[in-house]
Design a protein that fits this description.
Length: 99
């Protein structure tokens, strides 16, 4: 099995921002994200500067197999890149079952 190199902090932040933009583009998805985080729409910009926020965005995307697949397809990336970005942002590696 070929291992992919780790993502840089900058690349991981870019991927997480893409994920946040993807979430914001779907009213239902954004509503669930806001409900889970307890934030209001106006608080997202300030929260995005907080440590761990972008890793949390990736946690949210990865919490739903359908959502991560849709995001990966829309962003033209491998779903595993989301996990690599999460680690690069200081998150723990996810334990996911292989399909």
């Amino acid at each position: 099995m070929k291992l992919s190199p780790p993502l840089t902090q900058e690349a991981a932040e870019g991927l997480a921002i893409q994920a946040l933009t993807f979430i914001a583009g779907d009213a239902e998805c954004l509503g669930r994200f806001l409900a889970i985080t307890g934030m209001g729409p106006a608080e997202i910009r300030a929260a995005s500067a907080e440590p761990g926020f972008l890793a949390g965005v990736l946690d949210y995307i990865a919490s739903d197999d359908r959502l991560i697949a849709e995001f990966a397809a829309a962003a033209e990336l491998d779903p595993a890149d989301v996990g690599r970005a999460h680690v690069a942002l200081g998150g723990s590696p996810w334990e996911r079952e292989s399909p």
